[in-house]
Specification:
Blueprint: H1 2-32, H2 39-55, H3 63-73, H4 75-100, H5 106-132, H6 137-150, H7 152-171, H8 174-179, H9 182-206
Helix pairs in contact: 1-2, 1-3, 2-3, 2-4, 2-5, 2-9, 4-5, 5-6, 5-9, 7-9
Length: about 210
């Protein structure tokens, strides 16, 4: 029993060490890409590394080599994804500012909230879908929307978890250095892999 407890503790410590390293690599390669051109490839690489670890937890995944490989391979495609997401977010932000200055714009506000919700669903699932499937950017957004729409309960869970993590990071800023993106990514990817597995099993049954 003591050995099992020791092995379990070691495994948990190893996981946290891996997550800290993935987070460090994300920060490093985001900076290397000058921020604007680095965050999206670094995010896809982080999702890709964590996906491999989750799929094969007993295998020794070379973190740096795998991260670098995905970063370089998907650099252009990931930036295209990231630029579209950033542009959409900026457009929504500017639109909300304009609408707030308008009088009698209740229905427009409702429409904007609806668009923002759909945008949030697409963004939440875009990087897991991008990392798991080899799709075009257009197909990535389409699949993200359909998967998110069919699994809105997961989207709500993700939003709540991210809100809780934001409070934790605000209270304990030291966690940002080690786990800013890696913990949200492993949580989101864990549940998304369950969704993808369910979809693939349903696809096999219908064939």
């Amino acid at each position: 029993m003591f050995r099992k407890l020791t092995d379990g503790t070691f495994k948990i410590a190893e996981w946290f060490m891996h997550l800290a390293l993935v987070n460090f690599l994300w920060i490093l390669f985001t900076v290397i890409g000058l921020g604007i051109f680095g965050w999206a490839p670094a995010t896809t690489a982080a999702f890709g590394v964590i996906r491999k670890i989750l799929i094969s937890p007993d295998s020794d995944v070379p973190l740096f080599r795998t991260f670098l490989s995905i970063y370089k391979k998907d650099f252009i495609r990931a930036n295209a994804l990231g630029i579209i997401i950033l542009s959409g977010g900026i457009l929504l932000f500017l639109s909300s500012g304009i609408i707030n200055e308008m009088n009698n714009a209740f229905f427009i506000r409702i429409l904007l909230i609806g668009v923002a919700f759909v945008f949030g669903v697409i963004v939440m699932f875009s990087f897991p879908v991008f990392s798991h499937y080899r799709l075009t950017i257009r197909e990535t957004f389409r699949h993200s929307f359909l998967i998110g729409l069919a699994n809105l309960h997961y989207f709500i869970v993700f939003v709540v978890i991210l809100a809780v993590l934001a409070v934790i990071y605000g209270t304990f800023p030291g966690f940002i250095i080690f786990y800013l993106v890696s913990i949200p990514i492993i949580i989101i990817m864990h549940f998304c892999l369950r969704i993808f597995d369910k979809i693939e099993k349903q696809t096999v049954k219908t064939e």
